[in-house]
Amino acid sequence: MLDVMLPQSQIIFQSSLPSLNTSMAENGADQTADNVSDQEQPSFLEKLAKTLISVIFVVSIIVLFIVDLVWLVIAFVLALVFILLIPVFIILSPVLIILIPVFVILSPVFIVPGLIFLSPWIITLALVAACVIVWIYRYVTGKNPVGAEQVDKVREKVEEFGTEVKNKVEQLYNYIANIFVGGGD
Q: What are the extents of the domains in the chain?
């Protein structure tokens, strides 16, 4: 068992001189104890530096964990709000589809505000937003604003197309069901 702790030269010497085995082991143990005592103990500054590095590391891990937890909570809240607003989006989808061209037309207002004097853009944006809000209000309340007939025609065409697709899917389903259930007539 002592052979494992001793250097290779001492193992060879120990095996050739069996009477010196005990004295060699004692000398080796004494030398290692002397080496440990001869080494300098870490100074106060070294201990302080190691402690500070450990504290900084632990604090940074805790801060990263807290930031990760905060973003997780924010993402959860946003997902919950989105899930709760899905019925509202479905109900207002005809109105939202109408607003897409308005936002496309207004996108330069948001892209180029620093290049041109800002106040005309803000006034234009406010007027367009007011007009869109008034149009949506009149359309939803049934007062037939300008373009409401076109929106209704598009809505009717979409409904007709949806009904046609539904009927074709039902026919295809019945055909396939007849093939597999009815025996292939």
A: 45-91, 94-146, 147-185
- How far is C-alpha 35 from the geometric centre of its chain's CA atoms? 54
H helices of the chain, in order, are 2-5, 8-16, 21-38, 44-91, 93-111, 118-141, 148-182
Determine the average pLDDT of the residues in 147-152.
86
> pLDDT tens-digit profile of 47-84?
898 899 999 999 999 998 998 888 889 989 989 988 88
Q: Residue-wise over 132-154: b if at least 16 C-beta within 10 A, else e?
A: beebbeebeeeeebeeeeebeee
Question: Which position has the token pair 């052979």?
Answer: 3
Residue type, 22: T
Model pLDDT, residue 113: 57
| Three-class DSSP category at 17 | coil
Q: How far apart are CA 28 and CA 118, in angstroms?
A: 86
Contacts 24+ apart (CB under 8 A), 25-33: 28/2
pTM over 0.70: no
Question: One-letter amino acid identity for 153?
Answer: K
